[in-house]
């Protein structure tokens, strides 16, 4: 909102370059802040979990014998329910218990990463318990994504102020 207000005011100002220069200087200053940039990078990799899982999960499940789209949809539902259930406690940790949003963000990325290790490299060596292992991995991914999505904005606001 701040950027849009300054851009709108800069159109009305007689010297447009000065106002835009102020806006871009403050934005560049934020991007040069190492902690702010770390939050952006962590959020980027955390949200990439969703982007990576969507095209690969169905082919992975097909190799494990789940060729029916209804079964594949149930596996996606496991992840989404875990995300939905995991989001309110994350908000409680940040808002009510005053946990550091940066720590919650990193913790979520680590938990989601553990889910990918369980579904990927560990899954290549284990043939037994395929369904349960995949469900546990998807729960880890869903619960890990909840802090990534919920803690990003509070962490960025905290660093920007």
Word description of this protein:
The protein is an all-alpha fold and 161 residues long. The chain contains seven helices and no strands. The chain is elongated. The model is unreliable at 1-13 (pLDDT under 50).
Ordered list of secondary-structure elements with their pairings:
Blueprint: H1 2-12, H2 16-32, H3 34-63, H4 69-95, H5 101-119, H6 121-125, H7 130-160
Helix pairs in contact: 1-2, 3-5, 3-7, 4-7, 5-7
Provide a quick synopsis of the model.
The protein is mainly alpha-helical. 87% of the residues lie in helices and 0% in strands.
Summarize this structure as a short list of keywords or feature phrases.
7 helices, disordered N terminus, 161 residues, elongated, single chain, mainly alpha
Would you identify the regions where 5 or more consecutive residues have pLDDT less than 50?
1-13
Helix count?
A: 7
Over the alpha carbons, how many angstroms does the gyration radius reach?
Answer: 21 Å
Annotation, overall tally of beta strands: 0
């Amino acid at each position: 909102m701040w950027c849009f207000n300054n851009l709108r005011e800069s159109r009305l100002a007689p010297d447009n370059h000065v106002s835009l220069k102020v806006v871009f200087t403050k934005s560049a200053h934020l991007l040069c802040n190492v902690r702010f940039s770390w939050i952006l990078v962590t959020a980027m990799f955390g949200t990439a979990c969703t982007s990576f899982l969507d095209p690969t999960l169905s082919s992975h499940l097909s190799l494990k014998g789940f060729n029916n789209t209804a079964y594949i949809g149930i596996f996606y539902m496991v992840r989404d329910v875990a995300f939905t259930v995991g989001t309110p406690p994350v908000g409680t940790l940040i808002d009510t218990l005053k946990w550091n949003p940066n720590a919650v963000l990193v913790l979520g990325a680590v938990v989601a990463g553990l889910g990918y290790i369980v579904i990927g490299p560990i899954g290549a060596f284990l043939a037994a318990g395929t369904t349960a292992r995949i469900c546990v991995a998807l729960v880890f991914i869903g619960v890990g994504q909840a802090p990534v999505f919920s803690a990003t904005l509070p962490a960025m606001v905290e660093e920007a102020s």
